[in-house]
Amino acid sequence: MISKKNKKTNKRTRKTRKQKGGRFNVHDILNISNIREIIMNPHQYPYEVCGKIDPENPANHIYDRHGSFEVDRSGKSRAYCSQSTTQPIIWHTHMRDSKYFPSLEDIIKVLKYKKIRTSYIYTQYGYWILNNPEDNIDNNIIVIDDQLKRGIQYNLDIFYHNTKEGRSYNRNDIEELNFMLNDIIQSSFPNFNISWSDY
């Protein structure tokens, strides 16, 4: 039988463990200021976080889950967060010490899954908005041409090298990346658009 004293100790321990992970938790409703706090505090949040946005209340970012790390084909560890493919508006973060531009997977997800109309990618400098309101496609999952993937990756690689591995802010390079990606992708997805906004 646990004494009242031990019960109090256990409560304190559970509370401390919850706070150690940061003050935001899964299922919380966040605003952009909260998301920036998460990005800029990698010791409290050593992972990407992601979720969905309520279409009726666009300011409400629902925190669905936090991610983890995986080893890519080059042997490097990279952060990722497994997002929903059935929500119309999704969002995720790129951590402060990681690259601040979209990955090929980030872009392909918006093109591939018909139900995703908009994806927000929040970084330490600002955020990307990827829109693809394709109403005329019958299939729920679209097959993306390999040539289009190569064209996207080619321009992401240029941005990576021009911005010190995607970590140095440069508005001119951001605008150039947006222009090139829109030019390439809109040949196959005319309604697609990628843009950038500073905080």
Task: Write a structural description.
By secondary structure, this protein is of the alpha+beta class. The protein is 33% helix and 22% strand. It contains five helices and nine strands; from the N terminus they run αβαβββββαββααβ. It has helices at residues 4-20, 32-39, 104-112, 146-162, 171-185; strands spanning 29-30, 49-53, 61-66, 68-71, 77-80, 89-93, 118-122, 126-131, 193-198. The strands form two sheets. Strands 1-3-2-6-7-8-9 form a seven-stranded mixed β-sheet. β6, α3 (104-112) and β7 (118-122) form a beta-alpha-beta unit.
Strand content: 15-25%
Query: Structural class per helix/strand content?
Result: alpha+beta
Percent in helix: 25-40%
Per the principal axes of the C-alpha atoms, what is the gross shape?
globular
Unreliable spans are 1-21
